[in-house]
User: Fold this.
Amino acid sequence: QVHLVESGGGLVQAGDSLRPSCIASEDTECISDIAWFRRVPGKGRELVAGIGSGGSTNYADYVKGRFTISRDNFKNTLYLQMTNLDPEDTATYYCNAYPDLDNCPDLIGTEYWGQGTQVTVSS
Assistant:
């Protein structure tokens, strides 16, 4: 079973950069789409960026031009290059993955979440 572990958050000032990563504990052959979400206290999770198995990406409007999502399947790692950080980006960031049901049909109904990494941006 796939387990996800995020790291690379931290305390930074506005305008700085961070590059959190998410590492899968097992191979990712059964993972299709994977994404970064974030959550602030009292609010639900919101999508930050997503990337498909073929490399296609999508971004929330508020991070376009500032964040870049990428994946390294050989290293089983997801990245989020965050530049020009703003205090509004302060949140716990999570990676989320869904299985490729064409290749792994027994995983229907399964999704994976990491424990999150904290990003705090001061002004």
Observations:
- The mean pLDDT is 92.
- The two ends are 41 Å apart (CA to CA).
